[in-house]
């Protein structure tokens, strides 16, 4: 087995697991979700019954905290959720604000900070949990490598790592986040093309791919990732066009912040019948009634109905800045009420529900922060940024340029680069056809994607089969939980998983 100079604290070599006292826990993925599991696991150990945990192995090629979601140090990339919903510890909702204030931050808790501040916070909480574990005699090791699969064939789970080595653990938590970019309509053939970038992240890669000279760039997408791409590109002097099938930008709000009050109409959602043919209308009514509790201003006077996306952006930015935009106050409560409503529904029902509400989620629940909206408008005003009226029907690359045609556009438009910013596939875990191995990537023919999860968040070979000692946390739970990528949902799951693992559950 290969040995590396891994980041170690605590006792002796437990690399292969199970060769010392206590159980070995492996956490795969040390981004926000993995860090939340780790911190809450360490906190739970002193009061946990059952066989004690002797070592924790954290497997991630990136440094703890610096995952795809938050681990980019470009200050233009902001969190979308406010400081007051970004605590890694659900029992201490002010933990992130406390961390920031201890470093001189004086902002309001319902505002957003750069994503790197969140990554630094995760890294800090990771280090302090590691020190606490070491004082309790628990070995903690960060293995900077990617895990490929988990072999589950009778004995304890065996993790296969990308460097060819293997790890044995008693319990495994998978917290791998998103990483596989979606393939935008009409561009599948260009994956790997030197002038096509599959994602705007990390920003350093985007900068390196485009160089310092001003380029003409087509960004595919018009939601959060596309907004990030536009902000980075325009700042760096590139002329940028956003295009998406909807052609519309998200709505504008201060932030996704903690609910300012209770919303009884949203509590009603839990009692709705999932099979009711009028479900969509009834859910919408719950949301509208909840918004009314925040003030008398009619909902239609809180948003713009302008057809032109930039005009709509300008009008909604003005509303948000004037403080008359009340609907964002319900967003977190709506996410959590919908999550509770859908929890336990069959996966295909949840997917169908989410599809029906995609317009609402894409435009309102994942709305833009007013800071980013203002920045976009400034780039539109200088002509550096525009939103295309239609999505391309064809794209060819020849003689060093892209020629892109949209319906009704006449002459094709030319671009130097295309950047895909349509987001990421949710993480997929796949059972090998013989049922002995879980792959942390899409499988081959005959393999089956894990598409079902019980409330315990443990992996099973089939419905009704006994649970394996493998838990999912974070975005991987999307097969059961809508909004599995909502940080507050994730930290509560992490608390549950950490408690189960700590007690040997
Ligand atoms: C660009 C972006 C911005 C976002 N911003 C917000 C926001 O502002 N607010 C919010 O609430 N949500 C945001 N989200 C949603 C986000 O997915 C959730 O908040 C999620 O909880 C982030 O934590 P995570 O640990 O799942 O992902 P990450 O922090 O991305 O961590 C995943 C980790 O898993 C590691 N990993 C992946 N595969 C393997 C493997 N095979 N072996 C070992 N390690 C592996 C990666 O290296 C990475 O470090 C954002 C998502 C993205 C993609």
Can you give a write-up of this model?
- With 505 residues, this protein is α/β, with parallel strands linked by helices.
- It folds into three domains: 27-178 and 426-502, FAD/NAD(P)-binding domain (3-Layer(bba) Sandwich); 181-247 and 388-424, FAD/NAD(P)-binding domain, CATH 3.50.50; 252-368, no CATH class.
- The protein is 30% helix and 17% strand.
- It has 13 helices and 24 strands.
- The strands form six sheets. The chain has a six-stranded mixed β-sheet, covered by helices on one side. Strands 7-6-5-22-21-23 form a six-stranded antiparallel β-sheet, with no helix packed on it. The chain has a five-stranded parallel β-sheet with strand order 10-19-11-12-15.
- The longest helix is centred in the first third of the chain and has 21 residues, at 115-135.
- Mean pLDDT is 93; it is low at 1-5 and 10-15.
- It binds flavin-adenine dinucleotide (FAD).
- Flavin-adenine dinucleotide (FAD) binds next to helix 1 and helix 13.
- InterPro entries: FAD/NAD-bd_sf, HpyO/CreE_NAD-binding, L-asp_N-monooxygenase_NS-form.
- Residues 1-22 are annotated as: Disordered.
